[in-house]
Amino acid sequence: MVQKLAILSFLVPIMSNTRKIYKWGSLEVEESLPSHTRNFFESTFPVDPNFRANIPKGEPKLKELKKSKVATQTLAKFKKIIGNNAFSADPEVRARHSIGKFYTEIFNARHGRVDSVVDAVLFPKSDKEVQEIVSLADQTKTPIIPYGAGSSVTRALEAPKGGISIDMSLMDKIIEFNPINTTVTVQAGISGPALESFLNEKGYTCGHFPQSFEYSTVGGWIAAKGAGQASTGYGKMEDILLAITAITPSGVIQSKAYPASSIGPDLFRLFLGSEGSFGVITSATLKIRKFNLNHSTKGSFIFKDFESAVETMREVMQGGFGKPHFFRIQDPEETEISFQMSGLAGGKEDKFLSFIGYKSGKRSLMHIIIDGDPEYTTFVFKKIKKIAKHRGAFSTGKSPVEKWLHQRYSSAYLRDTLMDEGIRIDTIETAVTWNELHKLWSETRKYIKSFPNTACMVHISHAYENGANLYFIFIKPMEETGELESFAKFHKGLIDTIHENGGSLSHHHGIGRLLTPWMEKEIGKSSLQLLGAIKKAFDPKGIMNPGGLLGIK
């Protein structure tokens, strides 16, 4: 059964203005803080009013971009392949396609600075056009950076050598919906909301819900080897992906959607986490699952301490009776800040919990959602409840989960609002085994809290039989002078601390240009050389996202 989404009308200026260059999301979203949230931030992170008043808040005027590194005649050849309406060398369009959403990128963009820019942006409509673009780029040694929706937080979209950006947004169609095999084949530029809406109407889900869901694509999910908020049940992209088509300078790579095979190594999996450094992913076949929102079982528990919550999570994941699809623990500081930001601190619920032994500053909140057949979801939740109760948990019902779901995507806007107020907020994530988790949590928190007036919120949002991820959110007032230098020094020390205490370099954000200095230490010199050899096989002239994967040129 072949079903296609409606073709989007295409005008470059419209497409390039659907998202602010220096902020997270939609132009239509009004960014504001509830009074209790604003009161919390103003009292906890005081900022000099004069400094705050001078922080750029409006759409910045871009400083002059670097001169094009691609010859005019070469750009003309690209334009001939793609057509005038699908080609842009407009400075603003170039700039938008050359930055992601990492803290320093946003900070610079607020001041009109986008330094490492592509020379042109191309919007292909078919595999044939992509092949012709890649072939010409290979002949002329023009760098290519594939572009999904611009949500990278690892500086993966910077273009230090210039070149072209291949924006996949027009390759956004459903190629095949197959309910017999429970698969869907799509073009790589389809967005999360478009794919999920199509599947939900048919009673299915992809199960992949990153926080960037509204501003991310299937191609981006694969390229970053991403994880969604329900990955504990549905899996990361390596569990969801069945097959791809990718166009490389050496030729087309196309795999088949077998349920399993033993035909040597799975070459298509080399593109998982490849971040555009091997070729352009143009389509993919994904697993889908039957889904009925009304059959989901939701619940939450509050524990007297983080350790009890983590042990409950570990026991559930190793219990063999099933697992939640969404499984999340907030550590004590994140739990308390959530209480304060939601206006619950000091209220009757807060006082009652403290009265019965769940003390402020120590307690830890757990969220659970289980999807599937109602008998299954009820059975699994009862099992979890029994384990949680054994470890002293108090049931807090569905409300905390439903409140979290309400803001699961909009919370990404908070960083922009706080930057307006002169407050730094950013994140880093890692994976760790159960036996190393508490040490990593404690030592990393100790490092972050060693900086004056810094909050450190931590949660676990992806769990496995062998371990989990830790997601750190750090908040402090900006430095009035030297903010970028201060942030860079802090961030380097943070990565060093995580790496020295058993944490992975990344769990689901990818590597980009941000983490390349640590890659040899993470995977070893021999592995790095092997990746270099693989890149050379796919991309002999090194035109695909130069320097964008593991520092390989």
Please, could you describe this protein's structure?
The chain is α+β, with helices and mostly antiparallel strands. It contains 21 helices and 18 strands. The strands form four sheets. Strands 15-12-14-13-17-18-16 form a seven-stranded antiparallel β-sheet, with helices on both faces. It has a five-stranded antiparallel β-sheet with strand order 5-6-10-8-9. A four-stranded mixed β-sheet has the order 1-2-4-3, with helices on one face. Helix 4 (72-82) packs antiparallel against helix 7 and helix 18 (434-449) runs antiparallel to helix 19. The protein starts with 11 loop residues before the first helix and ends in a 15-residue tail after the last helix. The relative contact order is 0.12.
Widest sheet: strand order? 15-12-14-13-17-18-16
- DSSP strand content: 15-25%
Q: How much helical structure, as a percent, in the residues?
A: 25-40%
Q: Span between N and C termini?
A: 43 Å
The number of helical elements comes to: 21
Mean pLDDT: 93
Poorly predicted segments: 1-17
The helix-and-strand class reads alpha+beta
How many beta strands in the DSSP annotation?
A: 18
Choose one word for the global shape. globular
Radius of gyration: 24 Å
The major pleated sheet works out as: 7 strands, antiparallel
